[in-house]
Design goal:
CATH architecture of the largest domain: 2-Layer Sandwich
CATH class of the largest domain: Alpha Beta
Distance between the termini: 56 Å
Strand content: 15-25%
Strand order of the largest sheet: 4-5-10-6-7
Number of domains: 3
Low-confidence stretches: none
Shape: globular
Largest sheet: 5 strands, antiparallel
Mean pLDDT: 93
């Protein structure tokens, strides 16, 4: 690695001031699990890293809102989020997903803010947070702004954040009436990078799909929703013919890309097969 300056601000205001919207060689660093690998490989050569480690404790809080929402500070480590009673109460799918997210060494260091800001399409959390309807708050020199997680990720390793903005909070709205499942398909161990990650959140009443959100990751350039398939399911009875129809539609709609985990044709088969499995699981849970 080439030499670089390490700044350690003690407040959010100070950290934002140390960033430079015009200089891509100045970057924040939280857990650093992804950034350090990029630096070691020579893919990224920073002039200055702004460490967020010394910033006040509130940025790592995980708490329940009065309305049942879940608020997660951007510096909350993934291991703390997995163990959080508040997270398990508000959205148990998050803790379930983190059981096989990378390995325990990474989870002990990586933060949710860094996980989202890195925008790697193979991450497990983005599709999950998308279907939960999560929103992020970010702060920059001109103040704070908020937007949905699905609007945060704009491309491969790209986000809607500018170079001088920092994620501060992830908010998951109340999930009453919704069932959410995440399924990942890996070629090797369960905690490996997935060839496909698919998340579904569904609201079923009397076997009718009142509302549904579907997101895929890993098989696509960036995690994204499948609005066409969602519209196909909404308002209809969830039965075997509909599940087959929706699974085929999703395989066509998903903008899959080939990579080291498989061809585009293979990824489409994965989308079809695994969406069907998730829908079948949700159908059984609704009946039980």
């Amino acid at each position: 690695m080439v030499p670089f300056e390490l700044a350690e601000p003690e407040s959010l205001v100070e950290a934002v001031a140390m960033l430079d919207p015009e200089d891509s060689s100045v970057r924040p660093i939280a857990g650093g699990t992804a950034l350090m690998l990029m630096m070691k490989s020579g893919l990224y050569r920073p002039r200055r890293l702004v460490s967020l480690r010394k910033i006040g404790s509130g940025l790592a809080d995980i708490r329940l809102g009065a309305d049942g929402s879940l608020k997660i500070g951007a510096m909350a480590r993934l291991v703390d989020l997995r163990r959080s009673a508040e997270a398990r109460s508000a959205a148990p799918v998050i803790a379930e997903t983190l059981l096989t997210h990378s390995n325990v060494r990474v989870r002990n260091v990586a933060t949710i803010g860094g996980n989202l800001a890195h925008a790697d399409p193979h991450m497990d959390l983005p599709p999950v947070l998308m279907v939960l309807g999560a929103r992020i708050s970010a702060v920059g020199p001109t103040g704070e702004r908020e937007f949905a997680v699905e609007n945060l990720l704009t491309g491969y390793l790209e986000t809607a954040l500018n170079n001088s903005e920092l994620i501060t909070t992830v908010t998951v709205p109340p999930q009453s009436g919704w069932r959410t499942v995440y399924l990942k398909c890996t070629a090797r161990s369960a905690d490996d990078w997935p060839a496909l990650g698919i998340a579904i959140s569904i609201h079923i009443e009397e076997r009718i799909v009142r509302d549904v959100r579907i997101a895929v990751g890993a098989a696509t350039e960036t995690a994204r929703r499948l609005p066409g398939t969602e519209a196909l399911l909404a308002g209809r009875v969830l039965n075997d013919p509909l599940m087959r129809e929706a699974s085929r539609a999703a395989a066509i709609e998903a903008p899959v890309v080939a990579d080291q985990h498989g061809s585009a044709e293979y990824k489409r088969v994965l989308v079809e097969v695994h969406l069907r499995r998730v829908l079948a699981r949700l159908q059984q849970e609704a009946i039980a």
